[in-house]
């Protein structure tokens, strides 16, 4: 059986017993990618030679020693492309430096391998906004893998990767993980360095693992977290061993179900799967109670004002002057800017830049931006209040199963509305984990459903504990497309 | 003819002399090969992030303290959004609503005015009020030529202090004095080298004119591309004339930005208010706010005596004139040199030492195009020289000659006096002998003196001086002669 | 917040994005719908609430003033669309 189908934990055992080498893993992955990527389109590029070179000198004594990890194409790895799924950076851009998170991964012995497809500049929840290729859901090739880390999730879910890094601003790790039947973790804001992550919305972005199991996620998280002196927003705290949470029981754990979430609008099959999961958690000793997050209704509006506002400034640097796409024969500097950016950016990116510029512009700043910042305070307070009563908050990761490719092409708002459960933890800076909790059948195909756990700030330990306990009490994680 | 009132406000940007840039550890420095002082952050590469430079913050707070500003308890940084090729991110990280310093003022001292205006200062002792001082990052350098525009980002990210004055300045001469005074304070504070030629100090001017009696200010017109303090003066004169003539013609002036063309001696329209940027300021999400209390505490002991305080102290403690105090404090190192010279021996009058510094030392340094730090004359040596004159050991004329030699050789006064045999004879015994000699050789002159011709005394003094080889102490000598002739 | 008026051409120019007429019309309509949706913020009284600038209430993150060498000129220019004599090159800018 191809090593590509295994988990980090199982591969580590075999590496340590010298049954296999790191190069063996790289080769099996390369083979799987060659076979399946033309259909799935999870990767934009793979530098197998570079991976083999690193594998040859892999230090197997390190906790992640010898394990290749797919990298979302918006995280800088020195010498590799960093397209961000965009024409703006697809032509001649090579990363001249390593992201902080990549250094941490390598310190743990892991090997970055391959550049995973994504919605352009992380803007989207389907990966349809990639300008460079289509990624298909491994469970149903006519459906989206989710986004914006669709390539990362499709790779892990389709066994084209052992594990992957994604980035999450409003759900971009959790939602594609849910859609592709894998585990996705967005850590507490500030836990993982953003240095080297191409910024979308600076106050919301976080890098996190997409893996096949919760234990794998804990392992990777150990080698992502930690203060980076080059990122001011990076928290200066000691990193616990997240694997210590694996195998701990959850008796007496208080889990809250927000009453505002479980209203009409959730797909029936998803609702059923989540309710089944709730029963499962109760049988494991968790105490379920209803809580209230009264400002749930403004989460999307708040996010879609703040994120585009920050993005409009973050993406101003893409002007064709120092790097990236430059239009031919511009008439003057203004023309150079206008054309290079028009040619380099896709429609969703343009929409969000325009929206962001608008809400920051003179006369509208108070009406939109400041209002949204105030709403953000209330959303944070909702969680602070709720966490006085419970340890974990539970919801479906997505209210709907993955759309068909092209289904909501001209309706950006429809996409935005599906982010209703994943957005609030980003606004509040809280950690959140998506774990497979069942399937719904659409058009004859079984589509994965994800269960989202939200924890207190810096309480990834409890998230991993409950995620693992739930996972191990079911068999969802063992199913393959 | 109606009188017109000019209202001027200045925006000065001063580069801080930190070792590293504002938001990244790249070195700050002038003259390096293009793009060799860069990194992902100051190049604005995708994924790069900023981190505040604590020393830049402290230097700004220090400058604020020297200028009498207050520092609010919390300060933060914001993004100012506009596109320009020398902007790596197409937004500048600056401070909008919570700057590091507020209020304060720049005292204008007389010597700070242009030389030809120092006798006609309208408001002596004026303190120009400041609005604020904030800390931001500099942009890259662009060079325009036939092949296009070339960009060097070495300068991008250098910490820049923006000092905004109230529209409190009334003339080009006051503006000139403001810049000289401000520059001196920044150099005193050790926060900036403030060399306008190196681009370490830049100035934009806002001018409006209105007829006397009108309360409302006229349209505010901004002037840019002023590359020296003298150019600022020229530009203001020209612009005030231009605006006044326009208003007198009945033209309605619009808020706009104009570029000063020093070669042509005129301003040209750059952009009108309609084209003005919408900067869309918002708090920078990559930087955290700061609490200034600990910074204020750390900076307090670092604040040096301000030039204006030093001037006042010199006038009081050393009895020098305001003008002389201004000269002595024009440069911090010179002031320190002077005080060291005074302290070498407190019995020597400071005022006399001041005269020597101003009239002899500075003159020679200027002539030789030499810096004070290279002077072979040391402070203690000057004190010794002045002491010799005060005690009558040598005459003033002799002292000048001694000083010349001290300046070129670095030898001490005492050594040179000995070498040249300049010691004035004050020993009355020896002098008496010379007096007796001359008196006995000139009986008819003695008789003339006794008859009431006082001028004979001078002649006799001259003779004794000659006999002594020019070494007699004139004061002692004339007393002695008078006594002998009585 | 009354009916939001989005001057798409002005915003596009501020954003330095050249739009075709078709794009301008399409985006204006799509963004108009999104902005209408923002009226959801009117459902709560936000007037007495402090805005949140950062996820965590953290202050005083700064670094010592030590310099470190970064890129060589070659590394800095590695991704430059055009360069000349160690500098980035672009069409001549008319002074602003």
Structural account:
The complex is a heterotrimer of chains A (481), B (486) and C (96). Chain A contains 16 helices and 11 strands. Chain A has 481 residues and is α/β, with parallel strands linked by helices. Chain A has one domain (3-255, 388-478): Amidase signature (AS) enzymes (Alpha-Beta Complex), CATH 3.90.1300.10. In chain A, strands 1-3-2-4-6-5-10-11-9-7-8 form an 11-stranded mixed sheet, with helices on both faces. In chain A, helix 9 (268-283) links the parallel strand 7 and strand 8 (287-291). In chain A, helix 2 runs antiparallel to helix 3 and helix 10 packs across helix 13 (365-389). The longest helix of chain A has 25 residues, at 365-389. Chain B is of the alpha+beta class and 486 residues long. Chain B has 3 domains: 4-299, no CATH class; 312-420, no CATH class; 428-485, Arc Repressor Mutant, subunit A, CATH 1.10.10. In chain B, 40% of the residues lie in helices and 19% in strands. In chain B, a hairpin with a 2-residue loop joins strand 9 and strand 10. In chain B, helix 2 crosses helix 5. The mean pLDDT of chain B is 92. Chain C has 96 residues and is α+β, with helices and mostly antiparallel strands. Chain C has a domain at 8-43. Chain C is 30% helix and 8% strand. Chain C contains 3 helices and 3 strands. Chain C has helices at residues 8-14, 21-37, 73-77; strands at residues 62-63, 83-84, 87-90. Chain C has a two-stranded antiparallel ribbon with strand order 2-3. Classes of the chains: A alpha/beta (481), B alpha+beta (486), C alpha+beta (96). Strand 2 (52-53) of chain B pairs parallel with strand 1 of chain C.
């Amino acid at each position: 059986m191809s090593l590509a189908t295994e988990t980090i934990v199982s591969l580590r055992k075999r590496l340590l017993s010298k049954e296999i080498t790191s190069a063996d893993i790289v080769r099996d992955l390369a083979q799987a990618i060659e076979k399946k990527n033309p259909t799935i389109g999870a990767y934009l590029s793979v530098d197998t030679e570079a991976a083999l070179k690193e594998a040859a000198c892999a230090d197997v004594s390190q906790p992640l020693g010898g394990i290749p990890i797919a990298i979302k194409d918006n995280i800088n790895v020195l010498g590799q492309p960093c397209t961000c799924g965009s024409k703006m950076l697809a032509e001649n851009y090579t990363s001249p430096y390593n992201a902080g998170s990549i250094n941490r991964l390598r310190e743990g012995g892991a090997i970055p391998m391959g550049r995973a497809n994504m919605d352009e500049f992380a803007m989207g929840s389907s990966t349809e906004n990639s300008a460079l290729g289509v990624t298909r859901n491994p469970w149903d090739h006519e459906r989206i893998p989710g986004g914006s880390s669709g390539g990362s999730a499709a790779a892990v879910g389709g066994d084209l990767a052992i594990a992957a890094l994604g980035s999450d601003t409003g759900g971009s790790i959790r939602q594609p993980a849910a859609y592709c039947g894998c585990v996705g973790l967005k850590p507490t804001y500030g836990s993982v360095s953003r240095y080297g992550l191409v910024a979308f919305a600076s106050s919301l972005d976080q890098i996190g693992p997409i893996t096949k199991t919760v234990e794998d996620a804990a392992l990777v998280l150990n080698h992502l977290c930690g203060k980076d002196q080059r990122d001011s927003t990076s928290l200066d705290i000691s990193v616990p061993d997240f694997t210590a949470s694996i195998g701990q029981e959850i008796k007496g754990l208080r889990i809250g179900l927000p009453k505002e979430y479980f209203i009409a609008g959730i797909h029936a099959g998803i609702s059923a799967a989540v309710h089944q999961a709730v029963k499962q958690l109760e049988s494991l000793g968790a105490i379920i109670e209803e809580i209230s997050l009264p400002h749930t209704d403004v989460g999307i509006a708040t996010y879609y004002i703040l994120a585009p506002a920050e993005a409009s400034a973050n993406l101003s640097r893409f002007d064709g002057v120092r790097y990236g796409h430059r239009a031919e024969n511009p008439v003057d500097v203004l023309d150079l800017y206008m054309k290079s950016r028009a040619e380099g950016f896709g429609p969703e990116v343009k929409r969000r830049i325009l929206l962001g510029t608008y809400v920051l512009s003179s006369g509208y700043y108070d009406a939109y931006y400041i209002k949204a910042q105030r709403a953000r305070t209330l959303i944070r307070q909702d969680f602070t209040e709720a966490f006085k009563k419970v340890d974990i908050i539970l919801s479906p990761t997505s209210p709907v199963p993955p759309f068909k490719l092209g289904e909501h092409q001209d309706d950006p708002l429809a996409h935005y509305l599906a982010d209703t459960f994943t957005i609030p933890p980003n606004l509040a800076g809280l950690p959140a984990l998506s774990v497979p909790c069942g399937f719904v059948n659409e058009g004859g195909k079984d589509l994965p459903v994800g269960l989202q756990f939200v924890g207190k700030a810096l309480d990834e330990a409890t998230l991993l504990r409950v995620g693992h306990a739930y996972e191990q009490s079911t068999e969802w994680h063992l199913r393959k497309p | 003819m109606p009188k017109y009132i000019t209202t001027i406000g200045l925006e000065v940007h001063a580069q801080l002399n930190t070792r590293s840039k504002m938001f990244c550890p790249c070195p700050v420095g002038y003259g390096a090969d293009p793009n060799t002082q860069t990194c992902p952050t100051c190049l604005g590469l995708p994924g790069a992030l900023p981190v505040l430079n604590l020393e830049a913050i402290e230097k700004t707070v220090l400058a604020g303290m020297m200028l009498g500003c207050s520092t609010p308890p919390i300060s933060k940084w914001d993004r100012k959004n506009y596109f320009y090729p020398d902007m790596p991110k197409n937004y500048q990280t600056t401070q909008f609503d919570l700057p590091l310093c507020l209020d304060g003022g720049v005292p204008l001292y007389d010597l700070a005015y242009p030389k030809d205006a120092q006798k006609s200062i309208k408001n002596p002792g004026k303190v120009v009020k400041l609005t604020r001082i904030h800390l931001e990052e500099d942009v890259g350098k662009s060079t325009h030529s036939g092949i296009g525009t070339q960009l060097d980002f070495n300068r991008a990210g250098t910490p820049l202090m923006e000092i905004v004055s109230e529209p409190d300045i009334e003339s080009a001469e006051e503006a000139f004095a403001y810049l000289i005074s401000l520059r001196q304070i920044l150099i005193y504070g050790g926060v900036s080298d403030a060399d306008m030629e190196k681009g370490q100090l830049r100035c934009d001017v806002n001018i409006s004119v209105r007829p006397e009696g009108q309360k409302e200010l006229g349209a505010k017109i901004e002037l840019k591309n002023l590359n020296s303090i003298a150019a600022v003066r020229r530009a203001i004169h020209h612009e005030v004339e231009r605006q006044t003539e326009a208003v007198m013609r009945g033209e309605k002036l619009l808020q706009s930005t104009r570029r000063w063309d020093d070669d042509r001696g005129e301003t040209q329209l750059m952009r009108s208010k309609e084209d003005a940027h919408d900067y869309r300021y918002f708090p920078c999400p990559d930087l955290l706010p700061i609490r200034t209390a600990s910074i204020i505490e750390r900076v307090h002991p670092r604040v040096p005596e301000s030039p204006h305080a030093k001037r006042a102290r010199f006038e009081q403690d050393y009895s020098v004139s305001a003008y002389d105090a201004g000269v002595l404090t024009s440069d911090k190192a010179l002031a320190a040199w002077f005080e060291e010279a005074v302290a070498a021996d407190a019995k020597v009058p400071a005022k006399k030492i001041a005269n020597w510094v101003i009239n002899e030392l500075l003159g020679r340094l200027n002539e030789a195009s030499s810096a004070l730090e290279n002077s072979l004359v040391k402070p203690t040596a000057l004190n010794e020289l002045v002491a010799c004159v005060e005690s009558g050991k040598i005459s003033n004329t002799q002292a000048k000659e001694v000083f010349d030699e001290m300046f070129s050789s670095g030898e001490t006064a005492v050594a040179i006096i000995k070498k040249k045999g300049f010691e004035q004879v004050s020993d009355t015994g020896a002098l008496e002998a010379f007096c007796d000699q001359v008196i006995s050789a000139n009986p008819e002159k003695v008789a003339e003196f006794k008859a009431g011709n006082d001028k004979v005394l001078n002649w006799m003094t001259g003779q004794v001086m000659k006999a002594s080889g020019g070494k007699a102490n004139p004061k002692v000598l004339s007393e002695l002669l008078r006594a002998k002739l009585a | 917040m009354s009916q939001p008026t989005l001057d798409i051409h002005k915003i596009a120019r501020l954003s330095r994005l050249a739009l075709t007429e078709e794009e301008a019309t399409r985006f204006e309509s799509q963004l108009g719908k999104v902005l209408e949706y923002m009226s959801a913020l009117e459902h709560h009284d936000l007037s007495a609430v402090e805005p949140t600038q950062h996820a965590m209430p953290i202050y005083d993150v700064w670094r010592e003033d030590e310099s470190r060498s970064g890129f060589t000129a070659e590394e800095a220019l590695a991704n430059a669309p055009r360069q000349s004599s160690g500098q980035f090159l672009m069409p001549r800018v008319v002074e602003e």
